[in-house]
Amino acid sequence: MLIVLVFIFLAGIIEGGTQAILGFLRLQITPARLVSDFIAIAGVGSTLLNVSTVGFLGYGFLAINKLRLTGASLAALFTMMGFAFFGKTPFNCLPIMLGVSFSALLVRKKPRDYALIAIFGTAMGPLITFIAFELGVKSFLALPASFAIGLGVGLILPPIAIAMLRLHQGYNLYNMGLTAGFLGLFAASFSHAAGADILPIEIWGTAQSPILVALLPIVLLIALFCIVKEDPKNIVALFRHAYLDFRK
User: Fold this and answer.
1) What does the alpha-carbon distance between residue 61 and residue 81 come to, in Å, rounded to a whole number?
2) Helix (H, G, I), strand (E, B) or coil at 36
């Protein structure tokens, strides 16, 4: 997994150079609400840097909590990285992940028990960026306030996620997405009630990028190589699970 992340990181550097780094820093203070296409805002190189940094953050979080890369953890990690193309940044993901970890400690559980909730819960990341850079809060208060609210969101995510699971009784495969949707509706309603209108954003790039076209198959081949290198039997297990999932 680290090889894949390093490759994406290097691709960002090669494609964009120092401008990619400057663009990456700009993305941290850019509105992250939909639709905010980071490639259109800062370019391919900066966006790949953002994706790889978010991936490093998620992978490091799993490693600290001593979780292996299984189907569930890979799904969480790649979902987190995928949305780093338009919305998630290290800045707005970290407070939520820390908040979920604190939530686990409050109920006398290990943070690893809520690790997947923490990673999927970064769907609320754009809220942190909105509070920090769009709400109009004075600069010396904006960053600590957004970080504190991010911690608060992380603290309440696990109990709400459990309640949502009871609500749909397992019929919704995207429980954390539903949970984030409920929290997002509440946050938007509260913002409107406080007099802060959330104006629509539509920054959507349509230009084609050869490096992105080449990147996806190469990354997948590297991931497949790592799986087979660990144990050749893994490829058989991979196809068997894929077949069973298809039959379901």
Assistant:
1) 13
2) strand
Spatial neighbors of 130 by CB under 8 A, at least 6 apart, are: 31, 32, 33, 198
* Rounded Cα distance, 40 and 61, in Å: 29
Q: Are residues 71 and 178 in the same domain?
A: yes
* Model confidence pLDDT, tens digit, residues 76-116: 998 999 999 999 999 999 999 999 999 999 999 999 999 99
Q: How many domains does the chain have?
A: 2
**CA-CA distances (angstroms) from residue 11 to 5, 83, 225?**
10, 18, 19
Which of 64, 68, 97, 66 is closest to 80 using CA atoms?
Answer: 97
Instruction: Dump pLDDT digits (tens) for 159-181.
Output: 999 888 888 877 666 788 889 99
Q: Are 139 and 216 found together in one domain?
A: no
Domain region containing 168: 2-207
Give the separation between CA 150 and CA 129, rounded to whole angstroms: 10
